[in-house]
């Protein structure tokens, strides 16, 4: 099953509330962060500019947040 990419922050927040785990990958070369929310049935991703990442992370309610190097 392929991951589903969403482009709306509000839509991603809904998935993040149901997620088992959220993973964050920071790409400093492209100045974006990719956030992945794993639910029981789906993997949802969103790309956020690095300068907006910290404020977005404070808004989402995910049980377990893991930083990927």
Your description of this structure?
The protein has 69 residues and is α/β, with parallel strands linked by helices. It has one domain (4-68): 2-Layer Sandwich (Signal recognition particle alu RNA binding heterodimer, srp9/1). Helices cover 29% and strands 39% of the residues. The protein contains 2 helices and 5 strands. It has helices at 9-18, 50-59, and strands at 4-5, 21-27, 32-38, 43-49, 65-68. A 5-stranded mixed beta sheet has the order 1-4-3-2-5. A hairpin with a 4-residue loop joins strand 3 and strand 4 (43-49). The longest helix is centred in the N-terminal third of the chain and has 10 residues, at 9-18. The model has no long low-confidence stretch (mean pLDDT 94).
CATH architecture: 2-Layer Sandwich
When the domains are counted, the total is 1
Q: For this structure, what is the CATH class? A: Alpha Beta
* Shape label: globular
Helix content range of the residues, please? 25-40%
Q: What's the alpha carbon Rg, rounded to whole Å? A: 11 Å
